Amino acid sequence: RLRTAILISGRGSNMDALIAAARAPDYPAEVALVLSNRPDAPGLSRAKAMGMATAAVDHKIYAGREEFERSLQLLLEAHRIEFLCLAGFMRMLTPWFVSRWSGRMLNIHPSLLPAYRGLDTHERALKDGVKIHGCTAHFVVPQLDEGPIVAQAAVRVADDDTPESLAARVLQEEHRIYPLALRLVASGRVRVEGNRVLGALRDAGQGMRA
Ligand code: GAR
């Protein structure tokens, strides 16, 4: 099983979904480490309580991004990590780090990329009046919120949605597609050609299955 680290900064609900999925005996990845850049992340204490291996690398004590990332890298090597899942990890990563994990790092983003890169995706989607919103699991490349898309799920926008209500429905879909995306990639059922992931799933509704 692929030794995977989950990188978080906060709540860690996607972390929970990945940990739960990886408990299945036939799941091709195991969660070998939960790593946070915030020592006080709620997800980190939850992971600890579940008996997971955890670590915190507080970005604030490092002079720069590369020093911080060198620390991350050493820790990942010490735990013999082979694959990374960013799950609400709110630090930008340098090309130095990203290139080291090229093809071996996934992210979950709360929009249908390439729409709504960056922050406040739900608020911006509501402002634009879009009728369909969603989430994307994708490989990480140096450009923020770009990279080959492994899985997406769409969510209908309701007239009375608030950023919070929309976020909650999108989050449910994140919890569904992120474990699916990791399963597909870890089992070698997809291949990347340029910016495209072939063999991946597209989802026009709630029905995507691995
Ligand atoms: C999730 O909605 C995730 O998609 C988003 O942060 C939230 C983390 O929640 N990520 C980003 O916005 C990345 N740019 P979680 O900590 O409960 O998984």
From TrEMBL:
The active site is at residue 109. One of its GO terms (molecular function) is phosphoribosylglycinamide formyltransferase activity. N(1)-(5-phospho-beta-D-ribosyl)glycinamide binds at residues 12-14. Pfam families: Formyl_trans_N (PF00551). Keywords: Purine biosynthesis, Transferase. Its EC number is 2.1.2.2. One of its GO terms (biological process) is 'de novo' IMP biosynthetic process. The keyword Transferase applies. The record marks 145 as: Raises pKa of active site His. It catalyses: N(1)-(5-phospho-beta-D-ribosyl)glycinamide + (6R)-10-formyltetrahydrofolate = N(2)-formyl-N(1)-(5-phospho-beta-D-ribosyl)glycinamide + (6S)-5,6,7,8-tetrahydrofolate + H(+). (6R)-10-formyltetrahydrofolate binds at residues 65, 107. Pathway: Purine metabolism; IMP biosynthesis via de novo pathway; N(2)-formyl-N(1)-(5-phospho-D-ribosyl)glycinamide from N(1)-(5-phospho-D-ribosyl)glycinamide (10-formyl THF route): step 1/1. It comes from the Bacteria. Residues 3-182 form the Formyl transferase N-terminal domain. Catalyzes the transfer of a formyl group from 10-formyltetrahydrofolate to 5-phospho-ribosyl-glycinamide (GAR), producing 5-phospho-ribosyl-N-formylglycinamide (FGAR) and tetrahydrofolate. This is Phosphoribosylglycinamide formyltransferase. It comes from Methylocystis bryophila. The gene is purN.
